[in-house]
Structures are given as C-alpha cells and as structure tokens.
Design a protein that fits this description.
InterPro entries: HTH_MarR-typ, WH-like_DNA-bd_sf, WH_DNA-bd_sf. GO terms for molecular function: DNA binding; DNA-binding transcription factor activity. Keywords: DNA-binding, Transcription, Transcription regulation. This is HTH marR-type domain-containing protein. This protein has a single domain, classed as Arc Repressor Mutant, subunit A (Orthogonal Bundle). The chain is built from six helices and two strands. A two-stranded antiparallel ribbon has the order 1-2. β1 and β2 form a beta hairpin. The radius of gyration is 17 Å and the shape is globular.
Amino acid sequence: MTIYFGRLIKLAANQLTREFDDFAKQYGLTSTQMAMIDYLSRTQNVTQKDIEKEFNIQRSTATMILQRMEKLDLVKRESLKADARQKLVLLLPRAQELEAVIQAYMHDADEALLADYDAATVASLTALLEHITKGEQNNA
C-alpha cells in the first residue's frame, strides 16, 4: 500500500483549520485572523512583508486579510517613516484583549496534538514539517 504523505498532511491541515475556525468563530474571527493576532502579539515591529513571509502568502492575500482585520478593529497599518511603501501592522485594543485567550488555545491545542508522542517522535515530525515548509517558501 502506498502512503501519500502530502495527502495526509493536507488532510491534517484541513482538520486543524476546522478546529481552529470553530474556536475562533466564538470571537467573530477566522483561524487565519486568530493566527495573525497570535503572531503579532509575540513579535515586535511586524510589517506586512513579515506577515507575507511568516504565513507564506502573497501580498494580495495579506492585504485582503489585513483589510478585513482593520474593518473589525483588530489591527491598523501605518506607513514606515523610512519607507512609506512598507506598512507596520499594529494590534488594536480589541485584538489585544484576545491575546491571552488565543495564546492559551494555541498552547492547549499543541499539547493535545502531541500528547501521545515521545520527544524523539515530536522532533522528527517537527524536522519533517520544517523541511516541507522551507521548501515551499523557497518555491514561492
């Protein structure tokens, strides 16, 4: 029997996205918005370009997501003084109020996902996924 790892990874990603969306929905968010709030809360001086790289998305996709987040009063974008083409992305109070809840959920979801695996298995899975995602970023 042939195992298609790419297919399994895609199915796993879809399942995790559904679970994250279910959690995020109670706060009027999507899983992507939730992940961006988490990233912005843990990282200083984030530009839109940083978000594009972190989430491996195109500029147009990042712009669309950030515009929606601006409409929900979650973030604001400001032009950098040094380069007006670059936009600094800042969390607004509504998103800041959700930081702790989102971080706790992300932590608990990771703990539950990895609970049945030993450290060596987790390290191997992490290495595999990092290899895959680095390959994707190089092809983007």
